[in-house]
Specification:
Layout (H helix, E strand, L loop, with lengths): L4 E10 L2 E7 L7 H12 L19 E7 L7 E8 L6 E2 L5 H4 L2 H7 L9 E8 L4 E10 L2 E2 L17 E5 L18 E3 L2 E8 L1 E7 L11 H5 L2 H17 L12 E7 L6 E5 L11 H11 L7 H4 L6 E7 L2 E10 L2 E8 L1 E11 L2 H7 L1
Parallel strand pairs: 2-3, 4-6, 12-13, 14-15
Antiparallel strand pairs: 1-2, 1-18, 3-4, 4-5, 6-7, 7-8, 7-9, 9-17, 10-11, 11-12, 13-14, 15-16, 16-17
Length: 360
């Protein structure tokens, strides 16, 4: 019908993120061709992603690629892609726990997992990190249930609860909970904690970089001096964590920590890595909660020196996110509740790789 590539696609909200979901078999096998298709579909390289379906913000410029599991003990593979908005680059280094909330429903409706009774357990292998996450998806009569009475801060309205359990999140990318072998590293004159649990992060006290940590996210994003300093800190932290030059990666994520103000455990501002998140990443919540029980970390004293089992209530710009930490088989598991919704299904259209190369 036209000269564009036609690719089956489902647009879904997962937690406080949104993006297209694809079956791995529907995308080009070669990574370069796949990246070109994703960049074209999302419209990257333009601040509004006007020539694509991206939303012009990191939380709406995400892609989930789903297929049958390639490992024992899992039902599906989930490859996450963070598609940059500011330039044409696809980053596969992190996981996204918010998009993860929609993986189970998508897998069931795509026929990759059979539904069972009122709740269907979907065991998800995150290809980016090699970690296993269990999702309990509400189902009934073989169908996914999206409507319910659960609410999550950062998303309007109510929906069915999806319980996520990160089975062993420590060392998601580096293989170590504390990749620098110590809970505190002084970088650029600031005490930091480099931690890798669900996603690599570098935590610092907000007051130590000249802010309160309670500011509006846009005000922090617009604070060029703050962003420059945190960029220096995260770049050095990346090297100390054994990740090399992280300038082209969105990890480690910088996080500002402060005392709670509304009855929670602590307050945070999470960066992606140059824009402050309007709420909080799910993987970020897992890592921050783990830092809160890690003796000596910048979050440990602020959180009140917790130990497992514990509930860590994290205040963020849109509200709060609660994480349940338990010990299972010698490893810390982290559980939390998200919601998801199927928004649109049909086809996404991408420019052929040759057309992209000619335009460049």
């Amino acid at each position: 019908m036209n000269d564009l590539l036609k690719i089956p696609c489902v647009l879904m909200r997962g937690g406080t993120s949104r993006g297209p979901f694809f079956l791995a078999s529907d995308l080009p096998r070669e990574q370069g061709e796949r990246d070109a298709a994703l960049l074209s579909i999302m419209g990257s390289g333009h601040p509004l992603q006007i020539d694509g379906i991206g939303g012009g913000n990191p939380v709406t410029s995400k892609v989930a690629i789903i297929g049958p599991s390639t490992i024992n003990g899992a039902d599906v593979d989930y490859l996450f892609a963070q598609v940059r908005t500011d330039r044409q680059y696809v980053d596969y280094s992190p996981n996204c726990g918010n998009m993860l909330a929609a993986v189970g429903p998508f897998a069931i409706e795509a026929g990759l997992v059979a539904s069972h009774g009122r709740d269907t357990l979907v065991r998800i292998h995150n290809v980016n990190t090699g970690k296993l996450i269990e999702a309990k998806v509400p189902t009934r009569g073989g169908e996914v249930i999206y409507l319910g009475d659960a609410s999550i801060d950062g998303v309007p309205g109510l929906a069915a609860p999806i319980a996520l359990t990160f089975m062993d999140a420590a060392g998601a990318k580096t293989g170590k909970l504390l990749p620098t072998e110590r809970p505190i590293n002084v970088i650029d004159g600031v005490e930091t904690t480099a931690i890798d649990s669900a996603i690599p992060m570098v935590l610092m006290r907000a007051a130590d970089v000249g802010v309160t940590g309670y500011e509006d996210p846009q005000a922090l994003t617009d604070n060029s001096d703050l962003i420059e300093r945190m960029t220096r800190i995260r770049t050095q932290a990346g090297r100390l964590m054994g990740m090399g030059d992280v300038s082209d990666m969105v990890i480690p994520k910088p996080v500002l920590i402060g005392p709670a103000r509304k009855g929670g455990t602590l307050s945070v501002r999470y960066f992606m890595p140059y824009d402050c998140h309007p709420s909080l990443a799910t993987t970020g919540a897992v890592g921050i909660a783990t830092a809160a029980i890690t003796e000596g970390s910048v979050a440990y004293d602020v959180a009140g020196r917790l130990s497992v089992p514990a509930e860590v209530c994290i205040e963020h710009p849109a509200g709060r996110l609660d994480v349940q930490l338990e010990m299972r088989n010698g490893a810390i598991t982290a559980g939390l509740v998200r919601t998801a919704r199927r928004l649109f299904e049909g086809f996404a259209f991408a420019k052929p790789a040759a057309a992209i190369e000619d335009a460049a």
